[in-house]
Protein: Leucyl aminopeptidase family protein
Amino acid sequence: MTPEFAPASDTTLPLWLVWSGDPLPDDAGSWPQASGFTGKTGQICLLPDAQGGLRGAIMGLGDRAQAGRDRFALARAASLPVGDWHLAALPDGLDPDQLALGWLLGQYRFTRYKGAPVQGPRLVCPQGVDADRLLAIAGGEFLTRDLINTPASDLGPDKLEAAARALANDIGARVEVICGGQLLKQNFPLIHAVGRASASEPRLIDIRLGDAGPMLTIVGKGVCFDTGGLNLKPGASMGLMKKDMGGAATALGLLKMLARSGAASGLRLRVLIPAVENSVAGNAFRPGDVLPSRKGLTVEVNNTDAEGRLVLADAMTYAAEENPDLMITLATLTGAARVALGPDLPPFYCDDDATAAAIQAAGMAVGDPVWRMPFWEAYEPQIEPAIADLDNAPSGGMAGSITAALFLRRFAEGAGRYAHFDIYGWQPSAAPGRPKGGVGQAARALMAALPQILAR
Structure:
């Protein structure tokens, strides 16, 4: 589905937003009080006219002191009756951009398998808000969610390639794909090893947009389904593994945001997606195998379920050969990150303090929070096994997100700056603007931070 604002007209319905305990607007009359309206979070009171029709509504924002808990307050307005609405007034302390984006994100529904989407209420974009920019952001987020929510039966590596090609065609980008046996011939042995057991061949998708300016390269993990390989996941852990391409989905969503908003202008933008399915078959890679990499480093496989870092490693090496000014990896990489910070707050790793500070501040400002974690060098020996250069799954069970980040950093040499995001890509329970299911993380934070980062 496509997010949209309503056109301005004289027939749109007014919506008043009020904090709990604040006076109600005079135009509301006595009906809200008589109806028991208190202004609690998300409470909506529909206002009747003299003929019993609808003349507007009031929505509660809750306790002003707890405003920071609700990133997208206006997403709750999705339950309003179908029609076109405008904000009658903007209370102090609310960002109109966040309100309008919240409304757009609240429109999202995944209806691929349930027929046409139901029309919901539409908002007239508030004055002073860049509607095109917000529509680009919401459109990118909708793409990310759609891709993550689509099951692997309809989104294997081949279909992920088709989605990438469709986006590239839409924004005027160029695409090259290296597939199947060509991965070995062109020296991508890790990508080939992880994906060779699947019925859909492994591939590396390479999208480019722009020919001048600083170079930004985004590498997104595209494991379209992860059985765990021969280290087979239990059923409870395998149930959500259609989302293991959440890094790729977020990378494509960010690409759409940047292109559609005009923020990609003046950049050389590259998106690399190693697209594989980690399957079980007679030719699957095995625990104990030692695999070569494009970089020349050997990797001992101590768990075939730690495959994401393997496919990223070859793609990162390829990316670093062009010496991008900034390289970013987005990956649903470790359960350790979820244990540490939960599903809502993805950790990220970056050696450059100014870049890290810009990303974290931007994430908080736009309601897309991320939290910096350290490349803790004292843990480097944990990823160095006895018989190979690197270990893909250190034993011990501690600091799993950090050791994964240290592993990836070995393949970022050549990039001017590097940042890695260990995202979850899934909303486990519904929240305003974020229904249960696939969700983008870090894309809006990066979009907001990029001008400051790349100006250095």
The longest strand covers residues 268-278. The chain has a mean pLDDT of 95.
